[in-house]
């Protein structure tokens, strides 16, 4: 999983049918060791995360397993909202 | 998913049988936070997107789930046409 | 899918059994927008592509779907020979 | 698989149900040839690894196969604790 | 598939059960066009490759298909030992 910050929303009226009703968020990847900002991408949010929150994102075939829609063409899903990170050793 | 702009078309007469009839578009990845242009690649379009439009692209095993052809060897599909993006926090 | 140019051949006598008889080509990834050359890798060719040709390559779990061997450990397959690319907007 | 060093912990109270009880660690990728430090990410630990240890991490669809939960949306799992690496030729 | 050179061994006594008995090698990716050295990673060897040999590595879900253990959490497997590469056009 990667760590990211939710930085925005994206809307698409014309989309693949199984995506109807899914909330799409723009996430910017952050490195938990260096705090560096990396690339941004779009992830489905199914746990009620909001802008500014740090989240865990699962990508690839795992992303779909966090959704109740077995065949949605989703390759990135927010699977947790981060309360705390501790990086004592770096 | 990633955000991209459709920048062109690609034609291939000799191709794997299950791809016959699928429209292939050249997409350039864009970073929704920084507007930076990244690498370009080819995605199948099944929702009628056109050149110049911003789209959502799903990659990997999810890409095939957006198509009615269960075993097409497709690793990138356009799954939505973006109406609006809002990135208030960056 | 990505765009690449076939630049060479690779031979391996000792290999996983299901790969016997499959033709392996060295492909260099090209960016269809910028013409930049990227990394090279090895893809299975099942449609009769030759050195110097521009091809479409599918990677990941999709790669195997283009082959008649359901369980070959193949992660990149040439799925089309490109006739033409048009990138009007860039 | 990649080689990484466990550098921290991450806590998420609100998370996808199947992740409850799984320990999440922050791992920094290390190159076994050059010792260079690469990006950090989050992996599930199911074998009892601790901070400071060098580990093997499996990513993608393989990550889930190391867990007793068949449908957890996990894309990175620690699958071994490294005792020794030998890189005679470099 | 990617081309790599076997540069070392890795040992892990505590590891996921299905990995017992599998030989793990450190592989450094090489670009067959430019001979550039890229990142190193760990791949399972099931065909008897040795240090210094050039090999073909399959990654992702394909990696597991080269092993007789259907559910091993393996994301990279050596699938061939390279005898010769020819890159006439570059």
Identify the notable features of this structure and list them briefly.
90 residues; OB fold (Dihydrolipoamide Acetyltransferase, E2P); 49% strand; mainly beta; homopentamer
Low-confidence stretches of chain A: none
The overall average pLDDT of chain A, rounded, is 95
Q: Main β-sheet of chain A, in a few words? A: 5 strands, mixed, barrel
Specify the structural class of chain A: mainly beta
Any idea how many domains of chain A?
1
- Can you identify the CATH superfamily of chain A? EutN/Ccml
Strand content of chain A: over 45%
In which range does the helix fraction of chain A lie?
under 10%
Strand order, largest beta sheet of chain A? 1-3-4-6-5
Oligomerization: homopentamer
SSE ordering of chain A: EEEEEEE
CATH architecture of chain A: Beta Barrel
> CATH topology of chain A, what is it called?
OB fold (Dihydrolipoamide Acetyltransferase, E2P)
CATH class call of chain A: Mainly Beta
Q: Give the N-terminus to C-terminus distance of chain A in angstroms.
A: 19 Å
Radius of gyration of chain A: 13 Å
Largest interface: A-B, 34 and 34 residues
Instruction: Tell me, briefly, the overall form of chain A.
Output: globular
Number of helices, where a helix is a run of at least 4 consecutive DSSP H or I residues of chain A? 0
> In total, how many beta strands of chain A?
7
């Amino acid at each position: 999983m990667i760590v990211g910050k939710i930085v925005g929303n994206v809307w698409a009226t014309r989309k693949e049918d199984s995506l109807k009703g899914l909330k799409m968020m723009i996430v910017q990847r952050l490195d938990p060791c260096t705090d560096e900002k990396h690339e941004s991408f779009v992830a489905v949010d199914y746990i009620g995360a909001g802008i500014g929150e740090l989240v865990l994102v699962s990508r690839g075939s795992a992303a779909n397993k966090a959704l109740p829609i077995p065949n949605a063409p989703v390759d990135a899903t927010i699977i947790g909202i981060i309360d705390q990170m501790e990086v004592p050793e770096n």
